[in-house]
Amino acid sequence: xxxxxxxxxxxxxxxxxxxxxxxxxxxxxxxxxxxxxxxxxxxxxxxxxxxxxxxxxxxxxxxxxxxxxxxxxxxxxxxxxxxxxxxxxxxxxx
Length: 94
Prior knowledge:
By secondary structure, the chain is mainly β.
């Protein structure tokens, strides 16, 4: 079951420290009130941490058929891995 972060809509609270986590099933409805202080709450959205054996090594990207671009000192992007797409991507001149 995933963990969801909640925070009171009105700011911090002494009872719940302004933020709390709840383990809920995906099918369960969102909480409407804090279980400690009973204030209205909202579910927070944040980045997901990805862990595991993922590799961004050039050889792995090439094996997967992906393309990687690296930003150069002049602000353009140069293809370092892969064969698809343009070799260089430059900012349009104004």
